[in-house]
Design goal:
Elements (H helix, E strand, L loop, with lengths): L4 E6 L47 E8 L6 E8 L12 E4 L21 E3 L8 E8 L2 E7 L10 E2 L10 E3 L8 E4 L19 H4 E6 L10 E6 L12 E3 L8 E5 L17 E7 L3 E4 L7 H5 L5 E7 L8 E6 L13 E6 L12 E6 L4 E8 L8 E6 L8 E5 L1 E2 L2 E2 L5 E3 L19 E7 L8 E10 L2 E10 L2 E10 L16
Parallel strand pairs: 1-20
Antiparallel strand pairs: 2-3, 3-4, 5-6, 6-7, 7-8, 9-10, 10-11, 11-12, 13-14, 14-15, 15-16, 17-18, 18-19, 19-20, 21-22, 22-23, 23-26, 24-25, 27-28, 28-29, 29-30
Protein name: FG-GAP-like repeat-containing protein
Length: 498
């Protein structure tokens, strides 16, 4: 079945109390200290909650600047939720390397090698945090295992050397979490040099590790897979969801390459591959979706990014694509920002209700879409960003959910100019890079809260702003402020709270 598109175009209203620079600001409260509540295991643990206490927890990679401008400390910080808000004064930390201050054995800052994943890896009813650290090929995959009192100290997993956990899901539908590595070919080696897209054999190999994993971090079995498109490229990232409600996790793999001037490039390259979870095979190439998924969601400039979530509340995951746009045409003018939702169904991805396309006049509108129930009405809402609006350095918009999908006309927008946001100086920098980072219910009231990262909030230094979700939307009057230095207390690194 083809994909029919219904299109909505509107100019966002400046909701949320936006005012002139220097308007009323609220005071910054001290860091909130305490231990998370003791939780309990669940048959289907919330991926946002590491200790099962009903409050979602925030995990973020932070680059702490040291006194030496040439040194930095990269750490993964975990902040637990509570009825009062995020416990920003009592974080746990995971350094990125073996040595102190995130340095490896050679004294170089290593960095985390993959985006941390949330899943119940060992099947004990608590969500775990999985990632990898180090420099390729000397990477180590680790897990912080969830428990009633919080996350454990990081433990290296018993996985193949150089394994990069790109995605987690139940690909074969057996009830256990599996991990996927898409291969190593397009990973930036931080040298500033581009790798040859024609991959050597050791970088081509993808692999799926099937659960259940034991506490030593060993999988039940493994399976090699080739995601390299004839050895030409490997996926940049992965997005998982169950698009046909069959109980097996499906996966979308975006690729980044420039093959226009390369005569050696295979003819059948794709920029967005779809693999379907399968009880017998684990992962198999997905059925064709017409029009092509990439073409359906991209603009003339391409596809900016992909998000997977249940956008219409029917219990089946959907794909939200953000179309790339440009404000620099030779003839002047710009493309509109564009969001496309392709709905999942029991018949398959794109084979149920018609896709929904939304446009907005600004080319920069539509960055980093996220889905969650912010208003608590049991209908998913859509949050997305505009990183280059007129008059400030970024905006975040909430499109309330309806039975027909996100309501563009009823959007609420918050920005650095929004009245009431907390500030230590009373006058944050209006050109800060202001963008959504994560939707989590960190106070357990049944509404998703939004964490915004403002890269240059005050004195051009970063800050986090945690907006409470309410029945009316995001509340600028209930925003919890915390700076990166809140997340770096003196003391030991990640251990389970006592």
């Amino acid at each position: 079945m083809g994909l029919a598109l219904c299109c909505t175009t509107a100019l966002l209203a400046g909701c949320g109390g936006a005012t002139d620079e220097g308007s009323a600001r609220s005071e910054v409260r001290p860091p909130l200290k305490g231990s998370p509540a003791v939780g309990k295991a669940s048959k289907d643990p919330d991926t946002g909650d590491f200790n099962g206490d009903g409050f979602d927890d925030y995990a973020v990679e932070v680059d702490f600047e040291g006194p030496d401008a040439d040194r930095s400390d990269i750490e993964l910080a975990v902040v637990y939720g509570s009825a009062k808000g995020l416990l920003t004064g009592s974080p746990v930390r995971v350094p990125d390397g073996d040595g102190e201050d995130g340095e490896g054995d050679d004294g170089e800052v290593e960095g985390f090698f993959s985006e941390p994943l949330r899943a119940d890896l060992d099947g004990d009813g608590f969500t775990d945090l999985i990632g990898s650290r180090g420099k390729y090929p000397d990477t180590r995959t680790f897990a912080l295992f969830g428990g009633a009192r919080g996350l454990s100290a990081p433990k290296d997993l018993d996985v193949p050397d150089g394994f990069r956990p790109l995605a987690a899901g139940d690909f074969d539908g057996d009830g256990s979490v599996d991990l996927l590595d898409g291969g190593k070919g397009t990973i930036d080696d931080e040298s500033g040099e581009e790798w040859d897209p024609r991959l050597p054999a050791e970088r081509e190999r993808g692999e799926v590790l099937f659960g259940p994993f034991n506490r030593a971090g060993a999988p039940a079995r493994s399976w090699a897979m080739d995601f390299s498109q004839h050895g030409y490229t490997t996926p940049l990232e992965a997005h998982t969801g169950d698009f046909d409600a069959d109980g097996c996790t499906d996966i979308l793999l975006p690729y980044g390459f420039d093959a226009e001037q390369d005569d050696s490039a295979p003819d059948d390259l794709t920029r967005l591959a779809y693999y379907r979870g399968d009880a017998k095979g684990g992962l198999v190439p997905g059925p064709d979706v017409k029009p092509d998924l990439y073409d359906a969601m991209s603009t003339v400039e391409g596809l900016r990014g992909v998000t997977v979530a249940d956008a219409d509340g029917d219990g089946i995951d959907d794909v939200i694509g953000s179309g790339e746009a440009s404000d620099n045409h030779a003839g002047g003018g710009s493309d509109p920002g564009e969001i496309t939702i392709i709905y999942g169904s029991k018949s398959g991805l794109g084979k149920g209700r018609s896709a929904k396309k939304m446009k907005q006049k600004a080319w920069s509108w539509g960055f980093d879409p996220k889905v969650g129930d912010v208003t608590g009405d049991k209908v998913p809402d859509l949050v997305l960003g505009d990183n280059d609006p007129k008059g400030n350095g970024g905006e975040v918009s909430l499109l309330p959910g309806t039975s027909e999908g996100p309501d563009l006309d009823g959007a609420q927008t918050v920005s650095p100019l929004t009245d009431g946001l907390p500030s230590t100086t009373g006058k944050p920098y209006r050109w800060t890079e202001f963008g959504s980072d994560e939707l989590l219910d960190f106070n357990g009231d049944g509404r998703q809260d939004l964490i915004v990262l403002a890269e240059k909030w005050e004195r051009k230094k970063p800050a986090f702003l945690a907006f409470r979700g309410t029945a009316e939307g995001l509340d600028p009057g209930q925003v919890q402020y915390f700076a990166p230095n809140y997340l770096k207390p003196t003391g030991t690194t990640a251990t389970r709270p006592s």
